[in-house]
Amino acid sequence: MKLYMSVDMEGITGLPDHTFVDSQLHNYERARRIMTNEANDVIESAYQNGCDYVLVNDSHSKMNNILVDELYPDADLISGGVKPYSMVEGLDDSFDGVVFLGYHARAGHPGVMSHSMTFGVRNFFINDVAVGELGFNAYVAGYYGVPVILVGGDDQATEEAKEIIPNIITAPVKQTITRSAVKTLTPKKSSKLLREKTIQAMEQITQIEPLIPPEKPTLRIEFTNYGQAEWAHLMPKTEIEPHSCIVKFEAEDILEAYRAMIVMTELAMQTKFC
Protein backbone atom coordinates (compact mmCIF):
# COMPACT_ATOMS: atom_id res chain seq x y z
CA MET A 1 0.00 0.00 0.00
CA LYS A 2 1.18 3.50 -0.91
CA LEU A 3 -0.07 6.50 1.09
CA TYR A 4 0.08 10.24 0.46
CA MET A 5 -0.13 12.61 3.44
CA SER A 6 -0.81 16.35 3.36
CA VAL A 7 0.04 17.97 6.70
CA ASP A 8 -1.37 21.36 7.67
CA MET A 9 -0.75 23.00 11.04
CA GLU A 10 -3.86 24.68 12.46
CA GLY A 11 -5.47 21.33 13.27
CA ILE A 12 -2.47 19.84 15.09
CA THR A 13 -2.91 18.76 18.71
CA GLY A 14 -2.73 21.51 21.32
CA LEU A 15 -2.47 24.49 18.94
CA PRO A 16 -5.17 27.09 19.79
CA ASP A 17 -4.13 30.29 18.02
CA HIS A 18 -1.91 32.10 15.54
CA THR A 19 1.09 32.32 17.90
CA PHE A 20 1.69 28.63 17.18
CA VAL A 21 1.42 28.72 13.39
CA ASP A 22 3.25 31.96 12.51
CA SER A 23 6.99 31.36 12.13
CA GLN A 24 7.73 34.83 13.53
CA LEU A 25 5.99 34.23 16.85
CA HIS A 26 7.07 32.68 20.11
CA ASN A 27 5.12 29.40 20.13
CA TYR A 28 6.03 28.34 16.59
CA GLU A 29 9.10 26.20 17.32
CA ARG A 30 7.16 24.21 19.91
CA ALA A 31 4.32 23.75 17.43
CA ARG A 32 6.46 22.47 14.55
CA ARG A 33 7.92 19.79 16.83
CA ILE A 34 4.40 18.68 17.81
CA MET A 35 3.46 18.74 14.11
CA THR A 36 6.43 16.55 13.19
CA ASN A 37 5.70 14.07 15.99
CA GLU A 38 2.06 13.87 14.94
CA ALA A 39 3.07 13.11 11.35
CA ASN A 40 5.36 10.41 12.70
CA ASP A 41 2.48 8.79 14.59
CA VAL A 42 0.60 8.24 11.34
CA ILE A 43 3.65 7.30 9.29
CA GLU A 44 5.02 4.78 11.77
CA SER A 45 1.61 3.18 12.30
CA ALA A 46 1.15 2.90 8.52
CA TYR A 47 4.53 1.23 7.99
CA GLN A 48 3.99 -1.14 10.90
CA ASN A 49 0.69 -2.29 9.45
CA GLY A 50 1.52 -3.13 5.86
CA CYS A 51 2.18 0.19 4.12
CA ASP A 52 5.10 0.13 1.69
CA TYR A 53 5.60 3.85 1.11
CA VAL A 54 4.50 7.21 2.56
CA LEU A 55 5.02 10.57 0.86
CA VAL A 56 4.53 13.57 3.15
CA ASN A 57 3.72 17.04 1.80
CA ASP A 58 4.26 19.93 4.21
CA SER A 59 1.14 22.02 3.55
CA HIS A 60 1.21 24.98 5.93
CA SER A 61 2.16 28.58 5.06
CA LYS A 62 5.69 28.55 3.56
CA MET A 63 5.48 24.75 3.68
CA ASN A 64 8.82 24.23 5.42
CA ASN A 65 7.60 23.50 8.95
CA ILE A 66 8.19 19.77 9.41
CA LEU A 67 11.57 18.93 10.94
CA VAL A 68 13.06 16.60 8.34
CA ASP A 69 15.81 15.42 10.68
CA GLU A 70 13.15 14.18 13.10
CA LEU A 71 10.79 12.66 10.52
CA TYR A 72 10.28 8.88 10.39
CA PRO A 73 13.24 7.75 8.24
CA ASP A 74 11.37 5.62 5.69
CA ALA A 75 9.09 8.46 4.58
CA ASP A 76 9.83 11.02 1.87
CA LEU A 77 9.07 14.71 2.41
CA ILE A 78 8.07 17.51 0.03
CA SER A 79 9.06 20.77 1.68
CA GLY A 80 9.31 24.41 0.66
CA GLY A 81 7.68 27.36 -0.99
CA VAL A 82 6.32 27.65 -4.50
CA LYS A 83 4.70 24.36 -5.52
CA PRO A 84 2.42 24.08 -8.56
CA TYR A 85 -0.18 22.14 -6.59
CA SER A 86 0.46 23.53 -3.12
CA MET A 87 -1.19 21.31 -0.50
CA VAL A 88 -1.51 18.34 -2.90
CA GLU A 89 1.87 18.58 -4.61
CA GLY A 90 3.17 15.14 -5.62
CA LEU A 91 -0.21 13.41 -5.48
CA ASP A 92 -1.02 11.16 -8.45
CA ASP A 93 -2.85 7.96 -9.36
CA SER A 94 -0.08 5.69 -8.04
CA PHE A 95 -1.31 6.15 -4.46
CA ASP A 96 -3.87 3.92 -2.75
CA GLY A 97 -5.06 6.42 -0.16
CA VAL A 98 -4.67 9.97 1.14
CA VAL A 99 -4.36 11.24 4.71
CA PHE A 100 -5.07 14.85 5.68
CA LEU A 101 -3.44 15.70 9.01
CA GLY A 102 -3.61 18.94 11.01
CA TYR A 103 -6.58 20.17 8.97
CA HIS A 104 -9.04 22.91 9.95
CA ALA A 105 -12.57 23.96 8.98
CA ARG A 106 -13.35 26.21 6.03
CA ALA A 107 -13.77 29.97 6.10
CA GLY A 108 -16.81 31.42 7.81
CA HIS A 109 -17.46 28.30 9.87
CA PRO A 110 -16.72 27.45 13.50
CA GLY A 111 -13.37 25.82 14.14
CA VAL A 112 -9.96 26.71 15.46
CA MET A 113 -8.26 29.19 13.09
CA SER A 114 -10.84 28.32 10.39
CA HIS A 115 -10.10 29.77 6.94
CA SER A 116 -9.74 28.81 3.29
CA MET A 117 -6.14 29.25 2.06
CA THR A 118 -5.98 32.99 2.93
CA PHE A 119 -7.97 35.27 5.18
CA GLY A 120 -9.19 37.18 2.12
CA VAL A 121 -11.45 34.29 1.06
CA ARG A 122 -15.03 33.93 2.22
CA ASN A 123 -15.92 30.94 0.04
CA PHE A 124 -14.65 28.62 -2.65
CA PHE A 125 -17.29 27.12 -4.92
CA ILE A 126 -16.80 24.25 -7.34
CA ASN A 127 -19.87 24.71 -9.51
CA ASP A 128 -22.38 25.44 -6.75
CA VAL A 129 -20.73 23.34 -4.01
CA ALA A 130 -19.00 25.33 -1.28
CA VAL A 131 -15.68 23.79 -0.26
CA GLY A 132 -12.69 24.64 1.89
CA GLU A 133 -9.14 23.41 1.66
CA LEU A 134 -10.21 19.94 2.71
CA GLY A 135 -12.89 19.61 0.04
CA PHE A 136 -10.81 21.17 -2.73
CA ASN A 137 -7.85 18.91 -1.94
CA ALA A 138 -10.13 15.87 -1.77
CA TYR A 139 -11.44 16.71 -5.26
CA VAL A 140 -7.86 16.65 -6.59
CA ALA A 141 -7.36 13.23 -4.99
CA GLY A 142 -10.64 12.13 -6.57
CA TYR A 143 -9.45 13.30 -9.98
CA TYR A 144 -6.73 10.65 -9.66
CA GLY A 145 -9.20 8.07 -8.33
CA VAL A 146 -7.63 8.08 -4.87
CA PRO A 147 -9.81 8.19 -1.73
CA VAL A 148 -9.12 10.37 1.30
CA ILE A 149 -9.21 7.71 4.01
CA LEU A 150 -8.25 9.62 7.19
CA VAL A 151 -8.59 13.22 8.41
CA GLY A 152 -6.98 14.40 11.64
CA GLY A 153 -7.68 17.87 13.00
CA ASP A 154 -10.09 19.79 15.19
CA ASP A 155 -13.65 18.57 15.67
CA GLN A 156 -15.10 20.97 13.09
CA ALA A 157 -12.67 19.84 10.39
CA THR A 158 -13.45 16.19 11.02
CA GLU A 159 -17.19 16.88 10.88
CA GLU A 160 -16.68 18.71 7.58
CA ALA A 161 -14.83 15.65 6.26
CA LYS A 162 -17.68 13.31 7.23
CA GLU A 163 -20.20 15.53 5.47
CA ILE A 164 -18.47 15.22 2.09
CA ILE A 165 -16.77 11.79 2.23
CA PRO A 166 -18.95 8.86 3.35
CA ASN A 167 -17.26 6.28 5.61
CA ILE A 168 -14.13 8.36 6.08
CA ILE A 169 -12.18 7.72 9.28
CA THR A 170 -11.53 10.79 11.42
CA ALA A 171 -9.33 11.62 14.39
CA PRO A 172 -10.53 14.75 16.22
CA VAL A 173 -7.60 15.74 18.44
CA LYS A 174 -9.18 18.90 19.88
CA GLN A 175 -12.61 20.45 20.37
CA THR A 176 -13.40 24.00 19.37
CA ILE A 177 -14.38 26.44 22.10
CA THR A 178 -13.88 29.55 19.97
CA ARG A 179 -11.80 30.25 16.88
CA SER A 180 -8.78 30.76 19.15
CA ALA A 181 -9.49 28.47 22.10
CA VAL A 182 -9.70 24.69 22.28
CA LYS A 183 -10.14 21.76 24.62
CA THR A 184 -7.34 19.48 23.44
CA LEU A 185 -5.96 16.03 23.93
CA THR A 186 -2.39 15.80 25.13
CA PRO A 187 0.15 14.70 22.53
CA LYS A 188 0.39 11.26 24.14
CA LYS A 189 -3.37 10.76 23.93
CA SER A 190 -3.57 12.05 20.36
CA SER A 191 -0.66 9.79 19.40
CA LYS A 192 -2.63 6.75 20.53
CA LEU A 193 -5.76 7.97 18.72
CA LEU A 194 -3.95 8.70 15.46
CA ARG A 195 -2.17 5.36 15.43
CA GLU A 196 -5.42 3.50 16.02
CA LYS A 197 -7.29 5.51 13.39
CA THR A 198 -4.52 4.97 10.83
CA ILE A 199 -4.87 1.21 11.22
CA GLN A 200 -8.66 1.48 10.95
CA ALA A 201 -8.43 3.64 7.81
CA MET A 202 -6.06 1.19 6.12
CA GLU A 203 -8.30 -1.74 7.00
CA GLN A 204 -11.42 0.00 5.66
CA ILE A 205 -9.86 1.61 2.60
CA THR A 206 -12.06 -0.34 0.18
CA GLN A 207 -15.18 1.11 1.84
CA ILE A 208 -14.19 4.73 1.13
CA GLU A 209 -14.85 6.13 -2.34
CA PRO A 210 -12.88 8.93 -3.97
CA LEU A 211 -14.57 12.33 -4.08
CA ILE A 212 -14.95 12.65 -7.85
CA PRO A 213 -14.84 16.25 -9.12
CA PRO A 214 -17.13 17.53 -11.88
CA GLU A 215 -15.79 17.65 -15.42
CA LYS A 216 -14.98 21.17 -16.66
CA PRO A 217 -15.75 22.73 -13.27
CA THR A 218 -16.60 26.36 -12.68
CA LEU A 219 -14.45 27.82 -9.91
CA ARG A 220 -15.94 30.78 -8.06
CA ILE A 221 -14.05 32.54 -5.28
CA GLU A 222 -15.86 34.98 -3.01
CA PHE A 223 -13.43 37.49 -1.51
CA THR A 224 -13.95 39.71 1.51
CA ASN A 225 -13.64 43.02 -0.36
CA TYR A 226 -13.80 44.31 -3.89
CA GLY A 227 -10.13 45.21 -4.10
CA GLN A 228 -9.23 41.55 -3.67
CA ALA A 229 -11.65 40.62 -6.45
CA GLU A 230 -10.02 43.23 -8.70
CA TRP A 231 -6.56 41.81 -8.07
CA ALA A 232 -7.76 38.25 -8.70
CA HIS A 233 -9.44 39.39 -11.91
CA LEU A 234 -5.99 40.24 -13.31
CA MET A 235 -5.73 36.54 -14.10
CA PRO A 236 -6.79 35.90 -17.72
CA LYS A 237 -10.14 34.27 -18.46
CA THR A 238 -11.71 35.39 -15.19
CA GLU A 239 -14.70 37.63 -14.62
CA ILE A 240 -16.13 39.42 -11.61
CA GLU A 241 -19.79 38.61 -11.08
CA PRO A 242 -21.91 41.79 -11.04
CA HIS A 243 -22.58 43.45 -7.69
CA SER A 244 -20.36 41.00 -5.81
CA CYS A 245 -16.81 40.15 -4.74
CA ILE A 246 -16.99 36.81 -6.58
CA VAL A 247 -14.47 36.00 -9.31
CA LYS A 248 -15.35 33.19 -11.72
CA PHE A 249 -13.08 30.96 -13.79
CA GLU A 250 -14.19 28.23 -16.21
CA ALA A 251 -11.67 25.40 -15.89
CA GLU A 252 -10.87 22.47 -18.14
CA ASP A 253 -10.54 20.17 -15.12
CA ILE A 254 -10.09 20.30 -11.34
CA LEU A 255 -6.30 20.56 -11.70
CA GLU A 256 -6.62 23.76 -13.72
CA ALA A 257 -9.20 25.04 -11.24
CA TYR A 258 -6.79 24.34 -8.37
CA ARG A 259 -3.91 26.20 -9.98
CA ALA A 260 -6.25 29.08 -10.83
CA MET A 261 -7.28 29.21 -7.17
CA ILE A 262 -3.64 29.48 -6.11
CA VAL A 263 -2.94 32.29 -8.57
CA MET A 264 -6.09 34.26 -7.71
CA THR A 265 -5.62 34.02 -3.94
CA GLU A 266 -1.96 35.04 -4.23
CA LEU A 267 -2.93 38.04 -6.35
CA ALA A 268 -5.69 39.02 -3.95
CA MET A 269 -3.21 39.11 -1.06
CA GLN A 270 -1.65 42.19 -2.67
CA THR A 271 -4.69 44.25 -1.64
CA LYS A 272 -4.06 46.90 1.01
CA PHE A 273 -6.55 47.81 3.72
CA CYS A 274 -6.75 51.43 2.53
Automatic annotation (TrEMBL):
Coiled coil: none
Binding site for Zn(2+) 1: 8, 10
SUPFAM superfamilies: Dipeptide transport protein
Active site location: 115 (nucleophile)
Pfam family, one: Peptidase_M55
UniProt keyword terms in alphabetical order: Metal-binding, Zinc
Alphabetical list of InterPro entries matching this protein: DppA_N (IPR027476), Peptidase_M55 (IPR007035), Peptidase_M55_sf (IPR036177)
GO molecular function: metal ion binding
Binding site for Zn(2+) 2: 8, 60, 104, 133
Name the UniProt record assigns to this protein: D-amino peptidase
Annotated source species: Tenuibacillus multivorans
